[in-house]
Amino acid sequence: MKLKLAVRSLLFPAIVLTAGIGGYQALAERTPGFPAAYSPDDANACTLLARVHRDNQPRGKRKAWQDVVDWWDAVFLQRPHSRFGMFTPEVRAKLSVEQIAAGAEACRAVSKAKSGIALRPHTETLFGPIAPPSPVQFTVAQLFPDQPAADEDEVDCAMALLSTQSRDFGLPEDQRTRFEAAYLKTPFSDYGFFSGENWKIKAAYRSRHMEAALSRDEVIDVANRCLARRDGQAIEANPYRAKLLGPDRMTRYLARRESDRQEAARAAERARLAQIAAAEREEAERPLRELSQRCDVVASEGVERAGRNMQAAYRMAETWLKTGRYGTNYAWEDFERACRSIASTERTLENMSCPGQYVSLVRSTRSRFQLDLGNGGEACREDWR
To answer: What is the mean pLDDT of the chain?
Structure first.
């Protein structure tokens, strides 16, 4: 399953964070108190419904709905215990325009401090029957795992490309489309960060963290850098990582990067030495390989030549037997030529110091040469060697 569209199209999930992840408090502090009658799942549903309904409006009417979206975004950050991860395309696919509009209107009424508004029916229409909560929780280590520096670059690239697709980022349509296309080419399965049952939620929250910790221009810069890297440019993916990680985790990241660099250097040296050793073995084995090639030719030609003589001997013997053993039996001459020929090949191989398997092959062939003239068969004589 692949992540879709922009971070602001995501349901920002239930997450419990420890110290080290900041940047959200200012947004949360702008929001009036959230009525206790509503659940975090209601807040998540409204975050999605208001966002999708806003995007369904003509451009001139979106401003009013943007205020509703901002209000629910801040509410969500105040109540981080949701269990559902969903993207806006999934909302569009699951609900009709009328259902989305009805839910969004209820959510707007709550944001305007109207009482007695029922959100649960809209929440269950979106998410289905809701069981008692079992909060999704992520630690700092899960959001920023100790992973190879190259993987950290790719995750940051995915987060930046995810954020910059959003209409909320204010980029031209063609630029957002370019970022989306690049994002969808990310090989998510290659990186452990994008794994587990709640990886969408985890990715949404880390992307939101990037938006909170970096400026808009910095996030866009990271996205553009990632595109340049994919085009083959040797450029740093994220020069603002210290703002994302904070001092302690940045120190840890730099240590891991140096460790990875040293291991890569050791691996390169091992590969270089292995290449040298392979070349040396190749050079050492070259004479034997060339000899084996020559021996193979000699053995093959010798066996074939002797085999032709044996076939001639078989034909002459068959003719002689069919004529009632009348006249001279020339089969014996062809048989002798076959035996002498295969013996000559054996001596040639021995004189060339060929590997034993070639000599053994020829000897085995000679031992099978027999001429049967009705007397049980004759083998090659030793004086024909």
So the answer is: 83
